[in-house]
Amino acid sequence: MLNSNDKRIKLTLIRSLFGRLRVHRQCVNGLGLRCMHQSVEIAATPENMGMVRKAAFMLKVEEV
């Protein structure tokens, strides 16, 4: 359950998943992104931030 003071981030997939390492594709899929230019809003938990850091070169990250 999210509290009202939890940080949230908006992620947008800006690079293709084709030809990427399997772990990078899995991290992006785990964050809820499936196709190019799709955006999702997620909680900035340590688990999610680890996945964002691993695939940061494919993502645009914004604070919400």
Description:
With 64 residues, the protein is an alpha+beta fold. The protein has a single domain, classed as 2-Layer Sandwich (Ribosomal Protein L30, Chain: A). Helices cover 28% and strands 25% of the residues. The chain has two helices and three strands, in the order βαβαβ. It has helices at residues 22-30, 46-54; strands at residues 8-13, 39-43, 59-63. Strands 2-1-3 form a three-stranded antiparallel beta sheet, with no helix packed on it. It is globular. The protein starts with 7 loop residues before the first strand and ends with a strand. 14% of the residues are buried. The model has no long low-confidence stretch (mean pLDDT 94).
Structure in a nutshell:
The protein has 64 residues and is of the alpha+beta class.
